[in-house]
What we know:
Layout: E1 4-8, H1 13-24, E2 28-32, E3 48-51, H2 58-72, E4 77-80, H3 95-123, E5 125-131, H4 134-137, H5 139-142, H6 146-165, E6 170-178, H7 184-189, H8 201-213, E7 223-226
Parallel strand pairs: 1-2, 1-4, 2-3, 4-5, 5-6, 6-7
Amino acid sequence: MTRTILITGANGGLGTAVVKKFLDENYKVIAVDHSGSHLGFASNHPQFELHAVNLASEPESDTFVKEAISLYKKIDSALLLVGGFAMGDIAATDGEALKKMFSVNFETAYYMARPLFQHMMENGYGRIVLVGARPALQPEAGKNMIAYALSKSLLIKLADLLNESAKGKNVVVSVIAPSTIDTPLNRKEMPKADFSKWVSPAQIADVLEFICSGKSDPLRGPLYKVYGDA
């Protein structure tokens, strides 16, 4: 049976590898991003579709999810990969910086997770994956990126709250917390780093497929520290 998965941030450095992995594993992929410039390999795939959705808009996100549910009847999994990054210690982080990170990291996930979680609870099955970050777990790593770390920590707390609500149901919200992901953008921004220690998008895609495949079914409330050697 083909499983249906929704992937936001599908055109990003991580999302592109994730889309490829799930198509290779015979999932029906409902991809969400503003463009498909890196998704040409999937454009003619019979189990791939790409949608442009303003994930910062709750009404637009809610409508999109409900239309997808109406069309496919069941969304088995959702990988909510959209996010952004910003440096800044407490002195450099004003309210505007907080709001920006809160919007791009938390609200874009929450507006999708809310209707998806309710749908999965009604079906008695579902997997949602949120993207945390090591700075949200380790104060020494987060002290110079306050807004980013705070926004990511909210996703970890959201997973805890939803998993508590899902007790007794086969619905699980997982969090992956990568270290530095080996993407072209990160290489450009940190040219002197040791890229061999970073975690690759393909490695993260493998973890995500494990979560959604059924192999992780005994786990509840998992937090995956995908650090590699970084």
